[in-house]
Automatic annotation (TrEMBL):
SUPFAM superfamilies: Alkaline phosphatase-like. Its EC number is 2.7.8.-. Keywords: Cell membrane, Membrane, Transferase, Transmembrane, Transmembrane helix. InterPro entries: Alkaline_phosphatase_core_sf, OpgB/LTA_synthase_biosynth, Sulfatase_N. It is found in: Cell membrane. It comes from Methylobacterium marchantiae. This is LTA synthase family protein.
């Protein structure tokens, strides 16, 4: 009876927490099947915590606390980025203690983190001591129970990955629709279901990376600009670079990207592979988590097959997003990362964009043959908060200070590549997560430009496109194709909605 009472408290309390959170803007699903699946999620969460303690009330309290934390974190994430928590976010948890500033949190050694964590552990230890375990008294039976319950949960998860249970799960969750599914079924059930769907859905087919058929430009430089948008869209001053783009670029315009304010890897993957997010299924939330860069038709592999040396440049840690391993698997021959920028000037916490531009031009100059350089800037990475820059405390003012450096860096690349037979592509990975730039800003669009040097200038063309369309265009650049792929057309970047 105690176990049933604790379970009832966990189910009803968790339902109440999510119902209160969704009141008004995202009411919970009321259909019997939706409620049943939601309660099943809470029950699985309670059983998970029960495996660790065998104390019913502690498991129920742990379930309630977990749901409350998920709701709070998901609400905060939705306010900044525009989507709820998703299963792939948990794969990034290991990076939080290593790079707390990037996740808007504090180091574990900070008293504001250490004290609550220590107090929570002390409370759990006290609860262990006060509440007796619900294990059978017979040692052999207790041992069977200790082993059996985790195995039962693991078996249940395995059963949902094949056969009729997997087909039922796919019928409930046919495609990613995160906001709607969280409203229907609750965060715990949706997180578990998306994890299982991601693990069971087949990998999308890819085209092979054949070599070039004509003579492509011998120098191709692609630069992903951190949090870059035209600052006038944020009521900032005009950036001289934007006039250069409007008058000199081969093509330019708005770039529809898969996320707002974060998830660099989504845009990066779209450009490097030319794949639309909807083609990735449940892997769209973190494309690198699924394949780890194993993309036979990536831009770098295609360039390498066409005779290019391939170089990835990023002045940050090799382990972030598993970048070093991912980029090698994507087909980059050589990586230039943070350790190669020792002693380089930092603007705030990160290597300055103008110094990165100098390094790119030095690599182009040193190349013995055709070269593809794919670079990712870091200077304007958030968070923008007091203490980042001396004398500048306002987040928007900090962003505008950095974006001016980004503009000068791109102009230095334009000047440095002038006279060469070269292509330069620059684009923003996502809009910045600033107070005056919240989800829905420009339909997640950033800005991009493609410059062509060493050829007669043509009239600049304005074309609003998506990141994957830009990636397909770049494929034609390195392979020298003349095909339908070279046509850049606009498609709405909102690809996560179910129809």
């Amino acid at each position: 009876m105690t176990l049933l009472a604790a379970l009832a408290l966990a189910l009803l309390g968790s339902f109440a927490i999510e119902a209160w959170d969704g009141a008004g803007d995202r009411p919970v699903g009321r259909r019997p099947g939706e409620i049943a699946l939601r309660l099943a999620g809470y029950a699985l969460l309670t059983a998970f915590w029960f495996c660790f303690s065998w104390r019913p009330w502690l498991a129920a309290f742990s379930c309630l606390l977990t749901v409350a934390i998920l709701v709070v974190v998901s609400r905060l994430k939705h306010a900044v980025i525009g989507e709820p928590l998703v299963f792939s976010d948990f794969a990034l948890l290991r990076q939080v203690p290593r790079h707390p500033d990037l996740y808007y949190t504090r180091p574990l050694t900070d008293p504001r983190m250490a004290v609550p964590i220590a107090a929570s552990l002390a409370l759990v230890a006290l609860w262990y001591w006060l509440e007796p375990a619900a294990l059978p008294e017979e040692p052999s039976v207790a041992l069977v129970a200790l082993i059996g319950l985790p195995c039962l949960l693991a078996g249940l998860a395995a059963s949902l990955r094949s056969g009729t249970p997997a087909r039922r799960l796919a019928a409930w969750f046919p495609r990613p629709d995160l906001d709607a599914d969280c409203a229907r079924y609750g965060l715990p059930a949706t997180i578990v279901a998306y994890t299982l769907r991601w693990r069971t859905e087949p990998s999308p087919e890819t085209d092979g990376a054949d070599g070039g058929k004509t003579d492509p430009a011998p120098v191709v430089v692609v630069v992903q600009l951190e949090s870059f948008v035209d600052p006038t869209r944020l009521d900032g001053p005009a950036l001289p670079l934007m006039e250069t783009i409007r008058t000199r670029a081969l093509r330019h315009g708005r770039l529809g990207v898969p996320a707002h304010g974060a998830y660099t890897m989504r845009t990066e993957h779209a450009v490097l592979t030319g794949r639309a997010p909807e083609s990735l299924g449940f892997g769209c939330y973190d494309p690198y988590l699924s394949g780890g860069g194993d993309e036979p038709a990536s831009l770098a592999r295609l360039a390498r097959a066409s005779g290019y040396a391939t170089l990835f440049v990023h002045p940050f840690h090799r382990d972030f997003f598993h970048r070093a391993a991912v980029m090698q698997r994507l087909g980059f021959d050589r990586l230039v990362m943070e350790e190669d920028f020792a002693g380089a000037p930092r603007i705030g916490p990160y290597i300055g964009d103008e110094h990165l531009a100098e390094r790119i031009l030095a690599e182009v100059e040193a190349a013995a043959g055709p070269v593809l350089v794919f670079a990712v800037t870091m200077e304007n990475h958030g968070p923008w908060k007091p203490g980042r820059l001396d004398g500048i405390a306002d987040p928007l003012a900090q962003y505008l200070h950095h974006v001016a450096h980004t503009g000068r860096a791109v102009e230095a690349l334009v000047a440095g590549l002038e006279g060469r037979d070269a292509i330069l592509c620059v684009y923003g990975d996502h809009a910045p997560s600033l107070p005056n730039c919240r989800p829905g800003f420009g339909e997640t669009a950033t800005d991009y430009a493609v410059f062509r040097f060493g050829a007669p200038r043509s009239r600049p063309e304005r074309a609003d496109i998506t990141a994957d369309a830009l990636g397909r265009f770049l494929r034609t650049v390195v392979a020298g194709h003349s095909s339908e792929e070279s046509r850049i057309g606009y498609r709405s970047p909102r690809v996560m909605t179910r129809t």
